[in-house]
Every structure is written in C-alpha cells, then in structure tokens.
C-alpha cells in the first residue's frame, strides 16, 4: 500500500537520515515536516529542500507562543514563501499544560491565521482541550480559502462535526490504535473517509504494536490499517484515498 504521513517532526529524531532512506522501500509517497517555532521552522524548510519527497509547514506552536515579536511573525511569513512550504502550522491553542498564557496563545494564533490568509495556505491546527475557543477564533478571524486540518484530533464526534462542517480535515494519529479509545473510533467511523488525513506526529504518539518506543513516519501504516478496519474498507483502497486527500488539501 502507498503511505503518506502528513505530520511528523523528523528534526526531533536522532536517526532521521536512516529513516528517510527507508521511505522508498516502505512505499512512502511523501511526508510533511511540521514547524513548531521560528528556529525549528528554518530547519523544516532546510530539510524539505534537501529531499524531493519531504514537504514542510512553518509555524509557532501554542506552547512556544510567549515573548514573540512582530519580527517572529515576519520571519514565518518569509519562510512560508518557499516553494516546499505547503501550510502554516502547527498553530492553535493548548490548555493541557498552559506553558504560555491564553492571551499570548490567542495573539500568536490570530497572527498566523492572517499569514495563512495572505499567502493562501492551509492551516495545520494544534488544539488540545481548547476546541471551543479555537473554533470561535477561526470563525471571528475568518478562514483561509484552503482551510486545513485539525491535527491529532482528540475530542468527540460532536466537536469533529463542527470542524468538518467548516470544511476542515481531521488528522488521525497513533492513539486510534490504543485499546478502548472508543471516542476516537466513533470520530473515525462517522467522518467521511475523504476528510481524514493520516499522521504520526513522530517521534511522539507511537501506534500499537510499537507503543512505548520512538515513533517514525513509516509507522503510519498501522494508523492506516486501523482506519481501514474501522471503516470496513479494503486497505489498498483506504491508503489510496488517504494519499489523494493529502495531495488535495496541501496542493502537492
């Protein structure tokens, strides 16, 4: 089956070159390296420019949204104009640990939504325990034409439907393989297959059967297998649709 990972952090993995060299053997069509702050976004662009089958996003994660200046947002905007940059992200709100204040998170999120709108790029949204506030900000600020994906979705079907109704895709990661994750199973079951994106969030959120070890993009196969199982679909058909979804939303 063909594989695609629409959300990974290869720059956070020690043996990234070894993993990248395995992509062809693993039938990996492409991966998207996702930025988490200004410094890391430089690295995502550098990595994407070094490999034909790696694309990237640039952005500032909500946990990195304190002490930002206009220069930081200007830098993201400049980086985003590289031809291998296909989205702004990961951006959003995270109330799980609240490393940064809500005020700073709101400001960073809003500034980067505006960059996406100006450059006509989709969003890669990081939302954790903040779905209502993130939804309201998106509505109030106005959406980019290409919308984007709610990365590593972790809420219920009712919440998923709100974002789907706007036109967002739903990103599904390793937790879908975890035992008794019934809430996420219901989300996958009810979400149209044409609006699901496969992700790993490597090196985090490793799927079963490798849970407890470091994740990597090739393990996306286990996420895709679980999606096919929940949807009662052929694995080859499922993987092909997910590749097409990924190419469509990110214009690859």
From TrEMBL:
One of its GO terms (molecular function) is hydrolase activity. Keywords: Hydrolase, Metal-binding. It comes from the Bacteria. InterPro entries: DNase_TatD-rel_CS, Metal_Hydrolase, TatD-like, TatD/YcfH-like. Pfam families: TatD_DNase. Transmembrane segments: none annotated. This is TatD family hydrolase.
């Amino acid at each position: 089956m063909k594989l695609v990972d629409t959300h990974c952090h290869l720059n956070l993995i020690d043996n990234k070159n070894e993993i990248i060299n395995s992509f062809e053997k693993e039938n990996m069509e492409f991966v998207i390296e996702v930025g988490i702050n200004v410094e890391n976004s430089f690295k995502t662009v550098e990595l994407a420019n070094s490999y034909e089958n790696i694309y990237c996003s640039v952005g500032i994660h909500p946990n990195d949204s304190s002490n930002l200046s206009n220069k930081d947002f200007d830098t993201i905007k400049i980086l985003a104009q590289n031809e291998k940059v296909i989205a702004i992200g990961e951006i959003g709100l995270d109330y799980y640990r609240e490393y940064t204040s809500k005020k700073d998170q709101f400001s960073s999120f809003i500034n980067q939504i505006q960059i996406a709108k100006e450059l006509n790029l989709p969003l890669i949204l990081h939302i954790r325990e903040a779905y209502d506030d993130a939804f309201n900000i998106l509505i109030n600020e106005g959406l980019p034409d290409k919308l984007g994906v709610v990365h590593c979705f972790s809420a219920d079907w009712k919440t998923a439907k709100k974002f789907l109704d706007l036109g967002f895709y739903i990103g599904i990661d390793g937790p879908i393989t975890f035992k008794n994750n019934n809430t996420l199973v219901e989300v996958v079951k009810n979400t149209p297959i044409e609006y699901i994106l496969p992700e790993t969030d490597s090196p985090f959120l490793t799927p079963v059967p490798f849970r407890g070890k470091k994740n990597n993009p090739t393990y996306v196969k286990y996420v895709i297998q679980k999606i096919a199982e929940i949807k009662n679909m052929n694995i080859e058909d499922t993987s092909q649709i997910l590749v097409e979804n990924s190419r469509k939303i990110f214009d690859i």
